[in-house]
Protein 1
Amino acid sequence: MEDYSVKGLIPWLYYNDLPRAMKFYEEVMGFEMVVDQGWSKIYKIRDGAYLGLVDGEKGYHKASDTKPVIICINVHDADAWYQRLVAKGVEIERQPQESERLKIKVFMLKDPEGYVLEIQESLPGALSI
């Protein structure tokens, strides 16, 4: 297979209130903004994994109440993430639970405009990354 030199992946999320979303991803999630394009921002989650936030009035798409996507963030310790987010006052949509079939521990929350974030830890034998 040829090496097409993919450097990373950036899913773009569209917001009515970009500053509010920025505050959430910086202060609550702890992500660092690495590129400021004015009406869009790129946050580094880890090497090669980024999240783009866009002003819904200026981007390719418009902000919408329908959010048919889940941003899954695979972590080393879901319990530590859960404790950290609860301590920051985040409302957890789905409490931590283990999936015997998938061999993962997972919980879910929503960002300020309703995008679902799934915090997932792979357990031994996981059907995930």
Protein 2
Amino acid sequence: MPTERAKALKIRVFTTFVSIVFAASMAATCAPAMQMSDLFSWNAAPAGPIRGVGYAAISIQPGKTRVQKQLMAIRASRLAAMRELAEKIYGLDVNSYSSLSETVMQSDTLRGTVSGLVRNARTVSIGPIKTDIYETVLEIDAADAAAMESERAPATR
């Protein structure tokens, strides 16, 4: 049976850990946000394409036959690749909430959302990479991404 001193030491270590995690999360939320327009504020847009990669498992897709599941996995991986492109162009909106009571973590919630219009994305490849996983690779020119980001209306909150 642990002694009172051992219990107190465990509590102190745990509260120190929670304090460090809380301080780190607060520091991260106070960091300045970099927007895509900051990346494209040079005289010329950077050269080269921006790539988005998406993955989807075949076996978990809805469908009665293996072919139906493969087609759904292709669609899911393509959508995941589009989401990654949107994240790279417009950024990811991250919301976090943590609750402490008497220096004990009660709950920790993290939510990320992305929205945006992706145009002119080219399909580089779509295909199986393992027996149960499809991969889709899409790309878009950096100049097109900069134009899409600059056309975006300011977010209203």
Protein 3
Amino acid sequence: MSKKTPYKKKPAPAAPGKPQTTKAADHKTTPAGTEKTGKQAPAKPFAIDRGNYKYIGAGLAIMTLGFALMVGGGSKDPNVFNEEALFSFTRITLSTILVVTGFAVEIYAIMKKPTPKRTPKTLTNDDE
């Protein structure tokens, strides 16, 4: 079932020789001071810029390396327990340090303020 859309009645044509009057509600007006001047408002900077994304990528790479170093240490025979492979320095200590470092880099990347864009310095009469 389709909804019926309301329509506006067109004002009746004015009698010849009389000016047509309109209601104030018929005209759409803008509040004072909001007229378009052709200039755009300055863009707000993003919370994260290119430098932050580099840190985010580095943090993800460090965490991925840490998790990759944790993998393994299993045995082909389920009845054999290989303690040296499972509890090695690489799997227990180094990989954990890398994962925690990766998380620290991620937190830094998110909290770091974006650097403001540099504008070219304009020459004035005093600079010459």
Protein 4
Amino acid sequence: MQHQTRAIRSYGSVHAASSLAGARGAQLTQMLFDGLVDALVALRGHILHQSTQAKSVQVNKVQRIVIGLQSSLDFERGGEVARNLDELYRYVIRRLVHVHAYNDLAALDEITELMREIRDAWRTLTPAAGAPVAAPARPS
């Protein structure tokens, strides 16, 4: 529960936090990845429009989400996968600092694509909220 609470706080939005409060495990992670990709897309727009203050706010939001995802990793149960994700999140934070300093859209696109790939992988593992989980097919 403590991991989920930290992840919720990292998202940074009252509305989103109230939606996330009812989510569990994989659903919470999926929602955070959705928010992360949206935040990265918005960051790109702020860079393109040269909105320095909005860009800074958005970079902070992205960092909070990534740190929330990172802090929710369970290294005991997650083993090598958790360690690999931890390294990836560290890399994303480093690249994000570069993006912020140099308005590097290619680096931002790289981060966005990496996070989309992970988000899409989570989607294949996480049933939609409220959707029933398919039962295994019965042999005929």
